[in-house]
Write a structure and sequence with these properties.
It contains 16 helices and five strands. It has 358 residues and is an alpha/beta fold. The protein folds into three domains: 4-129, Globin-like (Orthogonal Bundle); 142-219, Orthogonal Bundle (Methyltransferase, Methionine Synthase (B12-binding Domains), Chain A, domain 1), CATH 1.10.1240; 230-355, Rossmann fold, CATH 3.40.50.280. The structure holds cobalamin.
Length: 358
């Protein structure tokens, strides 16, 4: 992976590089064949995301993130009619932009990574075409899941309200409802979106329905809170995925934690002010998108610097950490857990170990 000077040069030039790649692609003589039926906006968005993503890969020096994400990129754009030939054309445009904009000594290690991607183009296509597993886990009946997912994508709130009623016989059902029903259903929604079998509007609608189900399920529960078990739960800055964090907040409350749930895309300043005011024992930060890792690392560093002696124990989790060991520690977190139940156990263990701060 490139040294710090190269990574910094990429970070500083990332928007200009993306603009140069936009220009190269929009003026390409075979533009129509390369991008298929899509508006150029979609491709421009890919260049912006690519710049943010590579910035994070270089910042963290994490090749695993790159290897894991490239087949997904090919799959998503391929499903939308983008030609596989677009990718080498695009990667060569990044190469050219780097050569033109970044001094040679800093550019060379970056170019080596782009050459690696170009050399592995066929392997990435092969990985992208490998069949994926369905989201139904061992605890989940595939046909029930499929029917539930269908109700989410068609916006059938009568069905989703009935599912909530059936599942939620008692407060202790909440964890099972969240982790065995809603979580796999949302993963399946993601798979359908990835394959362009549902629209972005349907993905939004499914999210809204799930949030409505969670609110209905949680409304039935009253749990006394322990005054010193305090946790702030939030998605990190720029992170729009908030359902996982929301589940953690609810499940901690069921266990007697006093939580402040800040939702999606919380600005760093607002989060710091909340920590200052609420003085939690634990901060749980949720990150889904790999392009949000760098700002999460910077946020954690700021919290440690700003909060000083009363810094909460910081746990991170979310999709991006799954299957990438060591990532949580590399952004400065004290711990991580794979799911919301694990997050609760970790918070409890920190509390019981006497890590509470007041
Ligand atoms: C719903 C959804 C959205 C909604 C979010 C709505 C909302 N209010 O939250 C919207 C439409 C906004 C959205 C936007 C985007 N999304 Co989206 N989205 C999803 C989807 C379908 C479900 C996410 C979800 O809620 N899952 C259910 C929750 C419960 O799971 P979870 O977040 O992983 O949380 C669990 C654990 O990870 C853990 N956990 C979570 N947080 C924490 C924190 C701590 C401290 C701990 C310990 C544990 C922990 O516990 C949770 C419960 O067990 C996923 C598919 C998927 N596989 O996840 C795609 C997905 C994440 N999205 C994706 C993409 C690409 C995007 C967009 C770029 C484009 C788009 N689809 O519109 C934008 C990016 C926005 C941004 N800047 O952040 C991709 C990401 C792929 C990748 N390689 O990174 C996915 C995987 C879809 C796919 N299969 O391609 N998305």
């Amino acid at each position: 992976m490139p040294p710090a000077a190269s990574s910094l040069a990429y970070h500083e030039h990332r928007e200009l590089l993306a603009a140069a790649v936009d220009q190269a692609i929009i003026h390409h003589p075979q533009l129509g064949q390369l991008i298929g039926p899509n508006p150029f906006d979609l491709i421009q968005q890919n260049h912006a995301n690519h710049a943010k993503f590579m910035d994070n890969v270089f910042f963290l020096g994490n090749t695993q993130l790159l290897v894991k994400t490239l087949p997904w990129v090919y799959r998503v754009y391929g499903a939308r009619g983008v030609s596989m030939d677009y990718f080498p054309v695009e990667l060569r445009a990044w190469r050219r932009a780097i050569t033109e904009q970044i001094p040679d000594s800093a550019a060379a290690p970056l170019l080596a990574v782009y050459d690696w991607m170009l050399d592995h183009h066929n392997d990435i296509i092969e990985a992208a075409n490998r069949p994926e597993e369905s989201a139904a886990g061992p605890a989940q009946d595939g046909s029930v899941l499929a029917a539930f997912v269908e109700s989410l994508v068609t916006g059938d709130s009568t069905w989703t309200d009935a599912v909530t009623r059936d599942y939620m016989a008692a407060p202790q059902d909440l964890e099972r409802f969240y982790l065995e029903m809603l979580d796999p259903a949302m993963r399946e929604i993601g798979r359908l979106w990835e394959q362009a079998r549902i629209t972005t509007a349907q993905e939004h609608m499914a999210s809204s329905l799930v949030i409505r189900m969670m609110s209905k399920a949680f409304a039935k529960i009253e749990s006394p809170t322990h005054p010193r078990k305090r946790c702030v739960v939030s998605a990190s800055p720029n992170e729009h995925h908030q359902i996982g964090a929301w589940m953690i907040s609810d499940l901690l409350e069921v266990r007697g934690w006093h939580t402040r749930f800040l939702g999606a895309d919380t600005p760093s300043e607002a989060l710091l002010a909340t920590l200052d005011d609420f003085r939690p024992t634990v901060l749980a930060l949720s990150v889904t998108m790999s392009f949000n890792l760098r700002n999460t690392a910077e946020l954690i560093a700021r919290i440690r610097q700003y909060a000083g002696a009363w810094t909460p124990r910081i746990m991170v989790g979310g999709r991006v950490f799954q299957d990438t060991p060591g990532l949580a520690a590399s952004i400065g977190a004290d711990g991580e857990a794979r799911d919301a139940a694990g997050a609760c156990l970790l918070a409890e263990s920190w509390f019981e170990a006497g890590d509470e701060l007041d």
